C-alpha cells in the first residue's frame, strides 16, 4: 500500500512522483471518471492467511458505478513478474455511486457458512447466497445521500460514516437523525442480510442483544482500532473521542478467553465493568479441567485482579441471559453455534449450582501448588505467600464459608514468617502482614463472625488479633473475656466457648471431659470445674464431686436434648450412669407424647424400668405391653400395691383390667398394629372404635375373667362370631342369645339404611335425567 500513494489514476492515464518508474493504466470510456479508490480492508496478513493474488491492490469505483480492481503486480519495477493492471471486479455493483467505499478481498474468511445462515434466516433465497456468500469480493459504500449499501442491499437509510474492521469482524456505522447511534453488524452475518425485512429489524436481529451505543449528534466514525475493542469518533465541534462499545468489547473478550489469554481479558473486563463470571461461563469445563485455572493464575499477575474475580463469582450462567454468546462468533471451541442460544451450561451439562465452590476449590489448589513449586505453569517465579489474599477469598466465597480454614492459613503464614526471622518482641499474629490479612478477610466477613470463629478454634491469641482491628468490638468487653478463658483449664475453657457459640454437642463432650480430669486428681483450686460452676458448689454440699458433676452433665443434656450423644459418652463401662441417661431419654419422649418410643427405651434397659414402661404403655394404648410389665413386676415383687387400692392381688388385677378396658373402648385406642395391614390407608373412626372394643373384650376376658363384659364389648364391636364363640365356650346360652339378638338388630338397621339410600339414589337419578333433557333442549 506504500505503492498506492505514488500512483494517481485519472481518466487519461497516470503519472509518477519522486522519480519512480510508473506505468500508465488507462481507464476506458470518455465519460467515466474515477470516483473513489480504496485499499482492501483485509489486506493485512494478520486477519487471514495468504492471498492468492500477487501484490497489493485496491478497489476502484468509477463515476457511473462501475467497480474495477487494481493489482499492483511487480511493485519494485525490476522488470520481472506481473505488470500492474485494472480489471473488472467480481463484486456486485452498488445501487448508486458512493463517494466512500470499503471492500473485502477475501470475504470467505469472515462470512458464516451457508448452512448456518440459512438456518438463521430461512427467508433468504439461493440467489442471495450466490451473490454474497459465494462471491470473492464484498463492497460496502456510503452514498452522498447518506445511504449505506452492501452491493445491492440497503444496510442503513441514514448514516454519516462507516468503517470495516476485519480484526473485530464488524461493520460499524454511525446513524444520523433524531437519535444518533453507533451500530455494529457482524461481517459473518452480512451475507444473510435481507433488505425486504427492513434495516432496523435486521439490525436488531443481527445484534443479538448487543445494543447500539448512543453518540452525540453530528458525530462521525473515524476508525475502529485493531489492537483494542475501541472506536474513534469525531464530535461535531472537531474533537476526537475514544469509546468502547459493548458490541466490540464482549466479542473481543470472548475471543481472548477462548484463546486462553486471561491476562488482557480480565483487564478489559475490569475496566469496562464486564461481569467476570464470563471467564468461567463461556466454557466452564475447559476452565476447570482444560488448564484454564492454571492459565488464569499464571497470566493475571496482580493478586487484586484475582481477588476481584473470585469475589464476583455467582452460582449462575450469565451466558444464558446477560452476555449471550452470538451465533456468528467463531471460537476455537466451536463458536457461538455450540450454545444454540441456551448458554454454556446447556452445551456442557455443567452444574452451575456448585460453580462457586468448584471454581474456588480448583483455583485454591492451583495457587497452593504454584507456591509450593515456587513457579506457575509457565515458569513465572512466585514467592511463598504471594497468593495469600486470593486463597483467603476462595475460603470466604465458598458456601458455607470456610472461615476456620482461612484463619488457620493466616496463623500458619504468620508463624512461618516469625520462624524465618520475624520480630521476637511481639506476637507473630500482631505482625503487619498478619493484621492486613485479617483486615482483608474481615472485608469479606464481619468482624464479630471472625471473632466467634477464632474462639471456636480455641485460639484466644488469634481471637485477640481479630478483635483488636474491629471498630465494633469494645476492648473492655473482649479482653476480660479472653483473660477468663485463658485462666480456665483446657476442657473448661472449651466448654465455655462452645456454650457461648451454641455448639452444645461439643460443649457436652468437653463437660464430660472435665469430669474425667477431676477423677485424674484435680481438686480444690486446681479443679477445672470449680471456676465454671462456682455458684453451684455451695448449694450441693453432701454429694461427691463426681456425682455433682454427673448431675450437671445430666441436666445439660436434658436442657439441650442430647440424650443420644450422652448414651455414646457414657458407654457400657458406666452402666449406672448410662441407665440414668436412658431413663431421662424415655421421660423426655413421654413428655413429647411419643409413648411407643418411650416404651421401647424403658423395656430395652437391663433390667427394664417396668414402672415407667407401664405409664408409656397406657399412653400409647399397648395393653399387651402393660400387662407384661405388670406380670414382670409381680414376679419380681415390685409395684404390687402401686396400682389400685387394697384387697387381694387378684382383685387388684381385675380392677386394673376393667379400668384399662374402659379406657381403650372409650378412646378407640388399640395396641399398635392391631388389625392394621401394612400399606393400608388409615382406618375410619368407626373402625377404630370397633378395634378398641375388641381389644377391651380381650382384656376383660384374659385379665378380669369377666365373660359378660367381654361379650358386651364384642357386641359393640359387632364381632358376632367371636361373641357367640366365647358364649358357647363358657356355656352361657343367655349370652349367646344376646349376641344373636344384637346381630339381628344390626342387620335390620343396616337393611333400613340400605333401603333409604336406594330410594334417595332413584330420586336423584330421575332428577338428573330431567336436567339432561332440559340442557339438550336449550342447546
Automatic annotation (TrEMBL):
Domain ELP1 N-terminal second beta-propeller: 127-222
Span of domain ELP1 alpha-solenoid: 246-485
Stored InterPro entries: A-sol_ELP1, Beta-prop_ELP1_2nd, Elp1
Compositional bias of kind Basic and acidic residues: 118-127, 535-544
GO biological process, one term: tRNA wobble base 5-methoxycarbonylmethyl-2-thiouridinylation
Gene Ontology CC entries for this record: cytosol; elongator holoenzyme complex
Protein name from the UniProt record: Uncharacterized protein
UniProt organism field: Odontella aurita
